[in-house]
């Protein structure tokens, strides 16, 4: 590798305004049920997050994204919302939520919530009213109720499949006890889809946004942002099954990524912009390609979107480089920042993804990843350390999923009886689902118990069982260990902060062999990642700032980058 450069600029050179914090922020995802349990009931809560705010501040993140904390029967771990203006009692109260927002702000961190507009819980007052009302009533018009097919209406209105398995329609029993209409649920039956053509639905969600913005919330992550508008003809799809949270399988899909969703976001953007400071949005949108994703990020729509192409990319230099280039160009075409994410609560943790042979096929679900063979966690961890340095050096916005900074692997052997993801039941026990990345975090390595999840002695076990050796990954064990994943993230986040990027629309690539990625974040901070089997020498005169390999010290810096390792350095002459 040489330090000579080949510039690769993309479409729009517009520099980000320094006041637009969201363009290059690092956002920490708090999956509330599994983050920190303050009251010892085995379920994470608002008070637990508040207790950990100093930790998050010291880690060096700019904002938290908290997954749904609203009252919910938990058919889908909170993504089935029964009341959008309150806090789930087992998580806390509105007063404690308000305190959390104030305390996070006092520490210089922003707070982003999760809004779930595609569907409500079946326990939501609107759906209960719809069930009690007759076919054709105004109460049913807010959801997608339809007559069944066939002479007696016994067949669902079309062949759509639930993302969690099984049909996307459930038939209700009418008040007189007869089998009645069907309602659509793209996810679990306990998550009926709203009809976004209905003005009351639109008005209600605009009011919900205002409710939380008025409380000081800085923005929203929009759940299933690509799903709210359906083809009114509800045509058959002709597919046997829907892959769980994946890019749409066809180009003219009747319910994913329809153009009608954009009108909704234009009205939401106007609301966010009416606040001082303006509030922001991030879309969870699974689209066919980066060009379709960029449509969500036009100037009068959403600010950012998750980059699932990056998350799903295998650990391979060429593929990652292609995704990086394409992502930067697509985002820049609408003057949005690119974003980077390695893990979240819906996918196999990346330590475990990278612990398998990388055959070049993008994937993220447990069944398909487990099929690649037993994990080599040492390899996965080495790659995850390098992946952290790669992601955090890229221009734009990055996401850290809770526990990734501890290097947690996926828990792949949860007992069947413990599984709670609706996918497990709905797939007829063929898909184990997403529980393995949601196991409660190990904070303390107590001699008396292995969990360290609860602040006070727990009266109940964590809602998902923690593996016996979970304490070895605890924050307490890692805190003062310079070679820990936690120390690597903490150091990297602080160096990153000292090297801000103002123009997220371009990347300066450094010349490198085919199985190496090398680029400058700023003239003073370059990153090189070695995906090959042989060590790669450092560029002449490079001053190493940080290395993913354990054992790195500034006094005795490495002279080469080993396989599956990354290094941050200041190029000679900078
Ligand atoms: C969330 C999932 C959830 C689904 C339905 C997703 O995209 O991230 O966890 O199951 O939406 O709300």
Please explain how this structure is put together.
By secondary structure, the chain is of the alpha/beta class. The chain has a domain at 125-184: Oligo-1,6-glucosidase, domain 2 (Alpha-Beta Complex). The protein is built from 15 helices and 19 strands. α6 links the parallel β8 and β9. α1 (46-59) packs parallel to α2. The model is unreliable at 3-18 (pLDDT under 50). The structure holds beta-D-glucopyranose. Beta-D-glucopyranose is lined by residues 76, 79, 116, 187, 223-224, 245, 284, 345-346. The site of beta-D-glucopyranose (BGC) has 10 residues, from loops.
CATH architecture type of the domain at 125-184: Alpha-Beta Complex
Net shape: globular
The average pLDDT is 93
**CATH homologous superfamily name of the domain at 125-184?**
Oligo-1,6-glucosidase, Domain 2
Structural class: alpha/beta
Strands of the widest sheet, in order across it, are 10-9-8-4-3-2-12-11
Name of the top-level CATH class of the domain at 125-184: Alpha Beta
Summarize the structure.
The chain is 25% helix and 15% strand.
């Amino acid at each position: 590798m040489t330090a000579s450069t080949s510039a690769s600029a993309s479409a729009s050179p517009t520099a980000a305004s320094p006041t637009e914090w969201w363009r290059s922020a690092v956002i920490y995802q708090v999956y509330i049920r599994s983050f920190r349990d303050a009251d010892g009931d085995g379920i994470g809560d608002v008070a637990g997050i508040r207790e950990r705010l100093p930790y998050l501040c010291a880690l060096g993140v700019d904002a938290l994204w908290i997954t749904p904390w609203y009252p919910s029967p938990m058919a889908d771990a909170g993504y089935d919302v029964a009341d959008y203006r309150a806090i789930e009692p087992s998580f806390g109260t509105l007063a404690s939520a308000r305190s959390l927002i104030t305390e996070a702000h006092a520490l210089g961190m922003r707070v982003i919530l999760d809004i779930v507009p595609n569907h409500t819980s079946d326990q939501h007052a609107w759906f209960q009213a719809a069930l009690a009302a007759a076919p054709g009533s105004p109460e049913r018009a807010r959801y997608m109720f339809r007559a069944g097919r066939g002479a007696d209406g016994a067949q669902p209105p079309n062949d759509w499949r639930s993302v969690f398995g099984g049909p996307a329609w459930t038939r209700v029993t009418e008040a007189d006890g007869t089998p009645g209409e069907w309602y659509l649920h793209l996810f679990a039956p306990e998550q009926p889809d709203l009809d976004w053509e209905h003005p009351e639905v639109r008005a209600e969600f605009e009011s919900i946004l205002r409710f939380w913005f008025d409380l000081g919330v800085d923005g929203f992550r929009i759940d299933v942002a690509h799903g709210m508008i359906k083809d009114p003809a509800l045509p058959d799809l002709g597919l046997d099954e829907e892959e769980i949270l994946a890019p749409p399988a066809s180009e003219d899909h009747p319910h994913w990524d329809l153009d009608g969703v954009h009108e909704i976001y234009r009205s939401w953007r106007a609301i966010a912009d009416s606040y001082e400071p303006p509030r922001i949005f991030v879309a969870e949108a699974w689209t066919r390609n980066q060009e379709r994703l960029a449509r969500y990020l036009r100037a009068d729509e959403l600010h950012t979107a998750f980059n699932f192409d990056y998350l799903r990319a295998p650990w391979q230099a060429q593929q990652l480089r292609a995704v990086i280039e394409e992502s930067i160009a697509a985002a820049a075409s609408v003057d949005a920042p690119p974003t980077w994410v390695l893990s979240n609560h819906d996918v196999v943790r990346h330590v475990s993804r990278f612990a398998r042979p990388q055959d070049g096929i993008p994937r993220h679900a447990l069944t398909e990843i487990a099929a690649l063979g037993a994990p080599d966690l040492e390899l996965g961890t080495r790659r995850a350390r390098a992946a952290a340095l790669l992601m955090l050096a890229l221009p734009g916005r990055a996401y850290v999923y809770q526990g990734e900074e501890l290097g947690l692997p996926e828990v792949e052997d949860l007992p069947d009886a413990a599984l709670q993801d609706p996918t497990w039941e709905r797939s007829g026990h063929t898909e184990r689902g997403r529980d393995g990345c949601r196991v409660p975090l190990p904070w303390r390595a107590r001699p008396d118990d292995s969990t360290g999840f609860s602040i006070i002695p727990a009266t109940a076990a964590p809602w998902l069982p923690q593996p016996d050796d979970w304490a070895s990954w605890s924050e307490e064990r890692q805190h003062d260990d310079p070679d820990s994943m936690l120390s690597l993230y903490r150091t990297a986040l602080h160096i990153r902060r000292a090297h801000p990027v103002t123009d997220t629309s371009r990347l300066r690539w450094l010349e490198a062999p085919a199985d190496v990625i090398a680029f400058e974040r700023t003239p003073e901070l370059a990153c090189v990642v070695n995906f090959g089997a042989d060590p790669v020498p450092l560029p002449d005169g490079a001053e190493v700032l940080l290395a993913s390999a354990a054992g790195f010290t500034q006094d005795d810096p490495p002279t080469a980058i080993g396989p599956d390792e990354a290094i941050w350095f200041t190029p000679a002459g900078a």
